[in-house]
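Summary: Need help interpreting a holo structure output

Steps to reproduce:
1. Submit the protein chain below together with the SMILES for flavin mononucleotide.
2. Request a joint structure prediction with the ligand placed.
3. Inspect the structure token block that comes back.

Expected: a single structure record containing both the chain and the bound molecule.
Actual: see attached output.

Input attached:
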Amino acid sequence: MYQNEITKEVQEYRKSTYPVHPIILNRWSPRAMTGESLSDEELFPLFEAARWAPSSYNNQHWRFLYAHRNTSEFDLFFNLLVEANKKWTKNASVLLVIISYNLFDRNQKPAPTHSFDTGAAWQNLALEGSARGLVVHGMQGFDYEQAKKVLEIPDDYTVEAMAAIGKKASKEVLDPELAEKEKPSSRKDLKEIIIKGKFKK
Ligand SMILES: Cc1cc2nc3c(=O)[nH]c(=O)nc-3n(C[C@H](O)[C@H](O)[C@H](O)COP(=O)(O)O)c2cc1C
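--- attached output ---
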């Protein structure tokens, strides 16, 4: 079931300076999806992967609101998106709104890492989906205020991001300018993101 080798399309675009597990390089954010629906057996393992993320005091601040295509809930989620994201997410099987609980369960005090921990859970979800050959694509192009209102999210939760999940399609289903961008991206050099000791530019 799992893709255990670096895929051909990824090999073409991504060179790592040091060897890393293929699951890391193979995850990227395609936009082309078929519009087919996903069963709970196909979708829920992604939430299961998210569930096992680490968090401060094991508080598990993450919550995933989800909506299946062709439901009124999907329309609610879809209408939050900017036009540029609507163009390709119209073929998503599932839309997510990822939120985090701002406080610790144990004392209701602010939890400094609620977003950080939720990011870890999101990455688990994306890696599991990608390893299963699904499209999992994060989005910040949506109305955060409106999301809070429409989805009745309480004030002690933070809206973090949305994501589209679906079955992969060939890039021809996309508008030409998006089809052009449908390939794995590269990254900054390692030396640009690590700093030995004190901060320096
Ligand atoms: C939190 C987050 C928000 C993003 N927002 C958008 C978005 O609104 N629209 C979009 O097309 N892609 C969005 N992306 C995808 C990024 O552009 C993509 O992850 C980045 O270019 C790296 O490429 P890769 O995921 O293919 O490795 C988002 C990704 C993340 C993690």
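--- end attachment ---

Reviewer comment: Residues 8-172 form a domain with the NADH Oxidase fold (CATH 3.40.109.10). The pocket of flavin mononucleotide is lined by residues 28-29, 85, 138-141, 161, 184-185 (CB under 6 Å).
Status: needs-info
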